[in-house]
Amino acid sequence: MFISTNLVLPTRTVDETNCCKLFNVCSARHNQRNHRGHTREWTDLKNSFHIAALLSLLTFIGVPFAKAAQSSPPSRPDGIFTPTISIVTSIDKTGRPMTAESRQLEPRLTQSIVAGNPTGDSYIIHFPQGAAGGHCSYSGNVRYLIEGGGTLTFQILADSGKLRRGYSYTICKLDVSLRCTEAPWWYVRDRTYTITKEGITVNGSTLVPWQDAVEAPELLQKMSEKIKALNERVSQLTASNTVHGRAISCREFHPETKSYRIHEFPTTCLIKSVCDGMPNLDSLRDGDPLDLNSPAGSYVKQQAKVSDFSNWLCWIRTQ
Predict the structure, then answer these.
(1) 137 shares its domain with 216
(2) 265 is in which domain, residue-wise?
(3) Is residue 270 part of a domain?
(4) Mind listing the pLDDT tens digit for each residue in 157-185?
(5) Per the CB 3.0–4.6 Å rule, which of 150, 178, 261, 312 could disulfide with 195?
(6) Whether residue 230 sits in one domain with residue 91
(7) How far apart are CA 314 and CA 305, in angstroms?
(8) DSSP secondary structure letters along the chain
(9) pLDDT in tens, 112-132
(10) Are 223 and 212 in contact (CB under 8 A)?
């Protein structure tokens, strides 16, 4: 490490010059002042060197500083535990079916979407203050929409000055009949959603109408076709000799780490003795949630061999 500095020697004053002439002590006094200047500057130099060396050492051993100590956000949101943020335009040309804006709140997100609250999300871009934008705060309005890949989504709307942002959470993946093919995700795990030409019904009672009732049926039909085409492409990648059977699929949530684990329990077998105790799922459709207190739920508990199922969600699906 190299540190450069400029050492400036002190200059004589007029009084010192006169003093030299009268008492002949100029040389001694000047040398004394010069020595003190050098000593002070050498001390400053050593202090600068020690500080720089100490900072380098602390950096090397990983001691965090104020700026470096700020925790960086995860690489990207997932729409499940953290919202996926997108631009909201006055006219949406993506062809996504979406409901009208509503004040109907999802219970587990109620505190977040109170109008005027800051978004508090680390993924948002805080625009400079001015007409174009500013810090984002929730508008209090929400809506439901179906993304292009066939995902039913709950979107919270926020205002950033004159700009708008949507904070989207995944509800579930849909099949060609626009039914959930899995249990709803974390924040909406105890809710049911029914999609009709009139709108989306939540928990069998609250209807949130489509934004445009006239074009909604056509958009729903096109979305169903997109999902069908996507499923066909996926099935083409599956080997022709693969045996398709029904299974019970479960998600085990870990709220403290915002993570989950998938469990699969097949309900078909080739050896009769292994089939003992397997539930009959003929009355259940793909995507139907499973009651863990039912015979099929008892089978899951027997196979999983765990004691706590408070954060488990299970549903029926075709493998």
Answers:
(1) yes
(2) 246-318
(3) yes
(4) 998 888 889 999 999 999 999 999 999 99
(5) 178
(6) yes
(7) 15
(8) --------PPPPPHHHHHHHHHHS-HHHHHHHHHHHHHHHHHHHHHHHHHHHHHHHHHHHHT---TTTTSPPPPSS--SSSSPEEEE--SS--S---BBPPB----GGGTTTTSTT-B---TTS--PPSSSS--S-EEEEEEEEEE-TTSEEEEEEEEEETTEEEEEEEEEEEB-TTS-BSS---GGGTT--EEE-SSEEEETTTEEEEBS-TTTHHHHHHHHHHHHHHHHHHHHHTS-TTPPP-EEEEEEEEETTTTEEEEEEEE---SSGGGGTTPPP-TT--TTPBPPTTSHHHHHHHHHH--S--TTEEEEEEE-
(9) 889 988 887 666 666 665 556
(10) no
Among 180, 201, 236, identify where a domain stops.
236
Are residue 100 and residue 150 in the same domain, yes or no?
Answer: yes
313 and 249 Cβ atoms separated by less than 8 Å: no
**Do 232 and 265 have their domain in common?**
no
Residue 77 is predicted with a pLDDT of 83
| Spatial CA neighbour of 92 closest among 137, 134, 145 | 145
Domain stop point among 171, 202, 236: 236
Strand bridging mode 206-209 / 137-146:
unpaired
Q: Which of 85, 171, 170 is nearest to 120 (CA)?
A: 85
Q: What's the domain count of the chain? A: 3
Query: Do 161 and 203 belong to one domain?
Result: yes
Return d(Cα 245, Cα 250) in angstroms, integer: 16
221 and 310, same structural domain? no
**Ranges of the chain with pLDDT below 50:** 1-74
Residue 253 in any domain: the answer is yes
Model pLDDT, residue 132: 61
The answer to whether position 66 is within a domain reads no
What global pTM score does this model have? 0.71
Residue 264 and residue 194 share a domain: no
